[in-house]
Every structure is written in C-alpha cells, then in structure tokens.
Amino acid sequence: MVKKNNQISCGDKRCVVIGTTSMCASILKLLYESSWSVLCVVSKDEIVLGYCNKHNIKILNCLNEIENNDFVLFSVINYTIISESFLKSHKVRFAINYHDSLLPKYGGLNSTTWAIYNKELTHGVSWHLISEKVDEGEILMQSSFPIVPNETAFSLNLKCAAEGVRLFNLLLESFESESLVLKKQHTSEKTYFGRGYIPKNYGIIDFKDDFETIDRLHRSLFFGGEKYN
C-alpha cells in the first residue's frame, strides 16, 4: 500500500486482523469475499475463533506471536494498544482501526455511553489510520446517523457495528479503485474519554435528579440483557 498526496493505494492484499465480536467476523467475511489473504487473526473472542476455525485461518493469542512482515493491519473492536515499535519492526504498511464515534470527538472508550449521556443528537463511526497518539490518525471514512429518543448504549452499539461493516465494504472498494483520500483530524475539536472517566456520582442514580436525567443515565449504561457498563 502506497501513500501519495493524501491518497493511499493497495498493493498485494496481505493482511492481519486483530479484534473481537461478530463485527470482526463480518469484516473477515468481507476480506475473504474481496480476495484478501488473511495471514492470521489475533483474537480470543469465541465468535471470531469460530469463524477462523471454519475457514482454516491461523489464530494467534497476541501481537507478539506474529511472524509475518509487510502487511496491512486491520483493528476491529480491539482493546490492545498497537505500538509504533510493533508497526516498524513488522514493516506494517498501514494499520487501520475502527472507532465507534465521529473522530476527533469521543475518542477513547465507551463512546456510545458518553454520546447518550451528553445529550448528543447524532453519532457515527470512523475508520482511521493508527498513529502514535490514540485515535488521532488520519480519517479514511466516516458516516453519521441520528441518536433517536430512548436510544440505549446497546442499540447505538448495534447501529455503529452495522454502519462500520457497511463502510468497510466501501473502504475495500476504494482500495481497488485507488480513490481513497485521507483526511487529517482537527485535534482542536478532540474530546477523549479514557478508562478513568465515569459519570457523575459514580453512575449511581440520585433520586433528586429529574426523570429525564435518571432515564438518560440508565440508557447510557444499558448494554443489553444483564450487562451494564
């Protein structure tokens, strides 16, 4: 893959994928359908492992086990920081990450939770290059959609995943046509929510708050079933 004048083009289709959830499995399916060679997958996720076993894809537990060089790295719902030293030592052409927000806003973790908690009316997803600073790499593709009334983190996560897969398909098509243009992030507009960020009152309901505030807190921390953030 070559970068020139804010455009990137793809050479031979060799890649490594690191990630979790059914979204990552969907990305692997699109890569297969687009004739990419998946050298290996780094994951411990049962859904991803199931797909890899079914299609005879090599599975690794961590990045340090990768023996290949000169490939494109796709990161899909991955919680491992990918260091600059790893990218250089393995001669990674480009490392591309999925993020569930419209960067540079809501970088970090739990983007859907914070978007609902902060009364946002729209949200979105981004595919971006991995850079030295977390979630600050150049944007390859983005799209946005409305946050509807009564939206929960669970429903918004599902929307993000579906849109992320749809955009990834367009991303692969853009590689083929060499029509993909990179866009720098305006870091002055950046907002970031790391692991140490928590809602007011540690996320505990304060019954002195009005109903809208309590409901919004509940929806922002609801991830479906018995799982709360």
Structural class: alpha/beta
**Spatial order of the strands in the main sheet?**
5-4-3-6-7-9-10
End-to-end separation in angstroms reads 38 Å
Shape: globular
Count of β-strands: 11
- What average pLDDT do the residues reach? 92
Overview of this protein structure:
31% of the residues lie in helices and 22% in strands. Helix 1 packs parallel to helix 5 (153-177) and helix 4 packs antiparallel against helix 6 (211-220). It is built from six helices and eleven strands. The strands form three sheets. Strands 5-4-3-6-7-9-10 form a seven-stranded mixed beta sheet. Strand 3 (14-19), helix 1 (21-33) and strand 4 form a beta-alpha-beta unit. The protein is α/β, with parallel strands linked by helices and 229 residues long. The protein is globular. It has helices spanning 21-33, 46-54, 84-89, 111-117, 153-177, 211-220, and strands at residues 2-4, 7-9, 14-19, 37-42, 59-60, 72-76, 94-99, 107-108, 122-129, 139-146, 192-193.
